[in-house]
Amino acid sequence: MKTFKIFILVAIAIVGFSFTVQQKKAAPWEIPAEYKNMENPLANDKASINKGKMVYMKHCRSCHGNTGLGDGPKAARLKTFPGDFSSAEFHAQSDGELYYKSIIGRDEMPNYEKKIPSKKDQWAVINYMRTFKK
Amino acid sequence: MCTKYHHKKAKNISIFGSIAGLFVFLLILGSSLQTIAQTDEFANDPVSGTFETGLLAETQTVVTPFAGEFELHIQHRFGLIENGLEDVFGIYSSSNIRMGINYGITEKFMIGYGYTKDFKLQEFHGKYRVFTQTESNSIPVSVALYANLAINSQDEEVFGNDYAFSDRLAYFSQVLIAHKFNDNISLQFGPSFTHFNKTDTLVEHDKFALSLAGRAKVSPSMSVFFEYDQPLNIDDMREYDSDENDPEANLSFGIEIGTSTHVFQVFMSNYEGITPQRNTLYNKNKIGDGDFLVGFNILVRF
Q1: Other CB atoms closer than 10 Å to residue B298's CB: what's the count?
Q2: What residues in chain B have their Cβ under 8 A from chain A's Cβ atoms?
Q3: CA-to-CA distance for B266 and B235, rounded, in angstroms?
Q4: Does the predicted TM-score (pTM) go above 0.80?
Q5: Are the C-beta atoms of B86 and B74 separated by less than 8 Å?
Q6: Is the distance from CB of B77 to CB of B248 less than 8 angstroms?
Q7: Could you state, in order of their start, the residue ranges of all structural domains in chain B?
Q8: Contact A120/B at CB under 8 A
Q9: How many Å apart are CA B294 and CA B93, to the nearest integer?
Q10: What's the pLDDT at B38?
Q11: How many Cα atoms sit within 13 Å of B216 on the Cβ side?
């Protein structure tokens, strides 16, 4: 009887896992040239990083995780992997590209122009994400 | 009685002076610390996040929702903590609840509706942010005007003889002046005026009050805050000789956690009415007697 119960549990688990949707890697972004070449007007200093941390912890951390690894509490429910902000690939992007992805967004990555209305806050969060370098 | 009366008057005037003085002093101190003029391109931008949301414990703040944004509010006040474990510090005691919704029509103007369990109050309110503090302090404060109309929807007989619909109406208006000192500390001063068309026997119809509120961030998403409300029981405005029905001051203090879509506030407070005009005119819970209760506010943005 015990073996039968274990068998049933394993069967349920296998069926359950087979329906789990695997997260796909994000498709390449099409970033307008005006954003690609956009200069970050905010000095990358301690004050802006602290401000950026406040904004990040409020708006970004739930999906992107405390250290930008894409492992926040909401991340598992997303269809697309939110990205690893500590990777060399991430840091190879310009501030303007990061700005477009972070503030303008697309699909599951929402637009934050209204929720983070201050330009200073918007650029501060870019400066903070630069600290996730490995 | 007379001496006690004059003592109370003197005390009220002194509290009025103290609150206003403290706010002005802190404002000057804060501004002088930021005299290094910012010449960057953000200098004339409005400051962000003076407060987490438009509500802090029992008071409104200068913050309004974004244009097109809805805010759902759930406000809950348990009973007084005075009975200790008998009713688990008021948790099993009778409570007061308000549910409301706000909508940002523009970046600076919001309207809202809510209903409160006690006295079956239906509330309509609006807030307009006149000025917003700038990064360089060229505008040193944010200023907002707030107005609230509460309609008591209890049965007609509650209002006694000669009932008229206007007996149900009570008004609250407030000027909110706030200064963000830095990313962690903000302070707000708010003189208000309350008017009830009909009150209980020997309760005044009008009341001026002052509010001082502040918050300090202790982590990127958590803050501690306080709020103090002082009704001005001024003799020259008094309708009746007795000061027995004078409302009591309120002290609220607690913690706030803010995320992108939610704000949670858990605090201790003397106020149990939730609706500001009700609190200002009818509060009988004394700070000195420890008449505190536990309350929480939950806000969902969508």
Answers
A1: 14
A2: 40-42, 45-49, 66-69, 107, 135, 183, 217, 219-221, 258-260
A3: 36
A4: yes
A5: no
A6: no
A7: 2-301
A8: yes
A9: 11
A10: 47
A11: 3
The CATH superfamily label for domain B2-301 reads monomeric porin ompg (2.40.160.40)
Rounded Cα–Cα distance for residues B136 and B41 (Å): 10
Closest-CA residue to B177 (of B149, B208, B207, B213)? B213
- Pick from B49, B74, B72: nearest CA to B62: B49
CB A83 within 8 A of CB A90: yes
Distance between CA atoms of residues B113 and B121, nearest Å: 11
Nearest chain A CA: its distance from B262 CA (Å): 10
Residue A85: which of A99, A97, A68 has the closest Cα?
A68
Give per-residue pLDDT as tens, B90-103: 999 889 999 999 99
Mutate which: B38, B41, B183, vs A, most A CBs within 10 A: B183
- Subunit contact A41:B45, Cβ cutoff 8 A: no
Query: Both tokens of residue B232?
Result: 């001005």
In whole angstroms, what is the distance from residue B123 CA to residue B130 CA?
23
3-state helix, strand, coil in chain A (%, to 5): 50, 5, 45
Cα torsion at B90, B76, B275, B265 (round to 10°)?
Answer: 110
Cα nearest neighbour of B218 on chain A: A54
| Helix segments in chain A, DSSP class H | 2-18, 33-36, 46-59, 61-64, 88-91, 95-99, 119-129
Number of C-beta neighbours around residue B56 at 10 A:
28
**Residue B253 corresponds to which tokens in the numbers above?**
């203090």
Higher pLDDT, A27 or A51: A51
Count: domains in chain A: 1
Question: Looking up tokens 């209204």, which residue turns up?
Answer: A114
CATH code for position A14: 1.10.760.10
Type of residue numbered A45: D
User: Chain B residues with CB inside 8 Å of A54's CB?
Assistant: 49, 183, 217, 220-221
Based on the number of CB atoms within 10 Å of its own CB, is B5 exposed (0-12), middle (13-18) or buried (19 or more)? Answer: middle
Q: What are the pLDDT digits (tens) for A99-113?
A: 998 999 888 899 999
DSSP states of A54-65: HHHHHHTHHHH-
**Residue A9 structural domain:** 2-132
User: pLDDT tens digits for B260-291?
Assistant: 889 999 999 999 999 999 999 999 999 999 89
Question: In the numeric block, which tokens belong to residue B138?
Answer: 């060229």
Say what the pLDDT of residue A76 is: 87
Q: What interface predicted TM-score (ipTM) does this complex get?
A: 0.74
Once rounded to an integer, what is the mean pLDDT over residues A76-87? Answer: 88
